[in-house]
Amino acid sequence: MAKIKFFLLIVGLLLAVSGMVYLGLVLSHQKEVLTIGLAGPMSGPFKDVGLSMQRGVALAIQDVNRSGLLEKYELQLAVSDDRSAANVSGYAEKSAKKLAATPNLVAVIGHYFSTASILGGEVYKAHNVPFISPSATLPALTTNNEWAFSMMPDDFYQARFLANYILHGLDRQKVAIINDKTTYGRSLKEYFLAELAVNEVTPAVAVEIDQSRVNRDLLKTRLKGLAESDIIFLAMNYANAAKMIHYLRKNGVETDVIGGESMGGAHFIRNAGIYAEDVYAVTPYLPSLFGEASKNYQIDFLREFQQEPDWISTYSYEATRLLAEAIRQVGRDSTDIRNLLRKMISPQDAIPSIAGDLYFNEWGASRRTLWVGQVKHGRYIPARFQLTHVKYQELAKMRKKNADIFSMDNQFMKRATVVYTGIHMNEVESFDPVAGHFVANFNLWFRWDPGKNKNLDFEMTYGKVLTATVREKYFDKKTNNNFISYLVSARMQDHFPLQEYPFDQQTLKIRIKPKLKSNEDLILVTDMDDDSFLTRKLDFGAWKDVRHLQFTTQKDFLWSYRNPKYDNKLFLLDHSQYNYHIQMERKSTGYLIALLPLLVLVTSSYIIFTIGYDVLSSRYSMGITTMLSAMAYHNVNKLGVGYLVRGDLFFLSSYMLFFFALVETAVVNYFNNAKKVEIAQKVDLVALVLYPVLVAGTLFLVFQIPF
């Protein structure tokens, strides 16, 4: 009975200590809850936009809270409905006042429309609450309110960009413009016409229509001029633009159409239907132009909402992440958050984000890079030409004869050619993570407008092409595209972190760049956003294929090596790089082979505590034998790397367990020889309870301690 009571006492003490430790951890990790407000059209004709905003903000808050980015704070969402574009019954102000009264409010995302953002902004200004609109573009929003910020470049910047894109990117000179009578449409038209005038271009047709309906009588007289134009600029929101596209196409006007960011997403395509095909627009979120973080965000969004993210969701997500980063840097004070955002006024101050580096002008309007998409098969893809800033302005001056370089906003810009790039993996022929290389066989293709780049060759970054056989090569006159495909075998060199072995996941990276002197004028983009129907599983040996990712990045290269022609300067330019990542993880058999025998030995040493005192030599023998067996097995399974891996840590921890068993045996032997058998029995009872706890604790620490 005494033994049972002692055993229960030991177990009770261990449970009590564990409970206190757990309670201490929970209390020490309690965080202050901060509220991020969201104001947008959650009902009414634009409620689908409001839903996009809410999804983006909710996902961002979830990601921030899970990541532990804010050590002292946890974010929560408060939503307020402003109902529609116009200030219907004062709902912009009402929704803003509702949010301003929310406890622990630190900032607001919203509103969607510029008018609602300006009206609601007056409320936030009065309460010293910073707010970021993911979509408003009217310049007056930020110039008249020091608490206001906009993720989308404003009408002033956007319209001038579009004018130059038409003239220099698409090389179209006969330009028509149709605008509606909304504030947005008139604002875009005003700045667009001003930029055309700077370039000494007069619009072939300029017509303003009523926002509620297509003015058939007025447009009828302009149909011939519209049909003869090189391109039509629609300065209107996506709903009105969809109606206009219907009208133009049904009346035989097949001229190319281009628009602002309101047309650059799924909402426009859904409204315009088949008539959206081939339309150009500023497209704020083109996943194939961005990096790995963007691709992972796209996958996470699809998993969470069973729908692809649009640019409104994405910019709402980015605005929330930007606020979280501000809170991390300066804390919860709203004035400090506002002041930090106001300092982000140059590319050098930019914060990386999933849709490109983010910074503002001096009034809080975004000045991030703009991209143009074109609708193909019901979705926006990067248009075949893009405008990018010239990295070194002095180089542009020296190369001013280059027809692709022009000036906008006192900055030199250039036209870059998009190269649609794709890979179909056939097999991973070999993979040695310790040596740091693998050999892959794959089909590779390029599709591009030949323009000044009649030919296109490629090379591997951090690798070597072993063989490259041209499978097909031709020029398609109908689409004005060059096409070339290869069958490639390449050996890629990389560093594979093995600290988590045998639980490690590895990424096999295939990185391709164009092999041209002017490769900074090419942009490699993924030819498909989703190639899951083409992806084949590449399981082999101990490795399981988890998923494939493809995306675009930029990589620096040294262009001028102290060339006297360029004043002995070094110019670090960048080239576009196409990335195809294959994420692999070790199969469960790898865990069993590496660790199961060791677990058997650790379990076997537990038997020591049940062996009687009359055969203490057997206890010693078993303890020493298990330790030596583990050491021999460890030696066989060691990786040829100069650092500890997760498996090594488990082995070393197991040695301590074996040592504990041997020390306990020595203690028991001492008390037994001293005729204190009762104490020896109690020591064994404690060991019987403590050893499994130590094993569990060891396993927890081994797999939780970060390397």
Q: Mind telling me the CATH superfamily name of the largest domain? A: Neurotransmitter-gated ion-channel ligand-binding domain
Largest sheet: 7 strands, mixed
Mean pLDDT, as a whole number?
88
User: Which strand-content bin applies to the residues?
Assistant: 25-35%
Please state the overall shape, judged from the principal axes of the Cα atoms. globular
User: Portion of residues in helices?
Assistant: 25-40%
Sequence stretches where pLDDT stays below 50 over 5 or more residues: none
Total beta strands: 23
User: What is the domain tally?
Assistant: 4
CATH topology of the largest domain: Acetylcholine Binding Protein, Chain: A
Question: Strand sequence of the main sheet, in spatial order?
Answer: 7-6-8-9-10-11-12
Structural class: alpha/beta
Using the 3D structure, state the CATH architecture of the largest domain. Answer: Distorted Sandwich
CATH class of the largest domain: Mainly Beta
Count of DSSP helices?
Answer: 19
Structure description:
There is one protein chain. The protein has 707 residues and is an alpha/beta fold. It folds into four domains: 33-152 and 290-349, Rossmann fold (3-Layer(aba) Sandwich); 155-283, Rossmann fold (3-Layer(aba) Sandwich); 384-586, Neurotransmitter-gated ion-channel ligand-binding domain (Acetylcholine Binding Protein, Chain: A, Distorted Sandwich); 589-704, Up-down Bundle (Methane Monooxygenase Hydroxylase, Chain G, domain 1). The chain is 40% helix and 27% strand. Strands 7-6-8-9-10-11-12 form a seven-stranded mixed β-sheet, with helices on both faces. α3 (91-100) packs parallel to α4 (114-126), α13 crosses α14 (334-342) and α16 packs parallel to α18 (646-673). The longest helix is centred in the last third of the chain and has 28 residues, at 646-673. The mean pLDDT is 88.
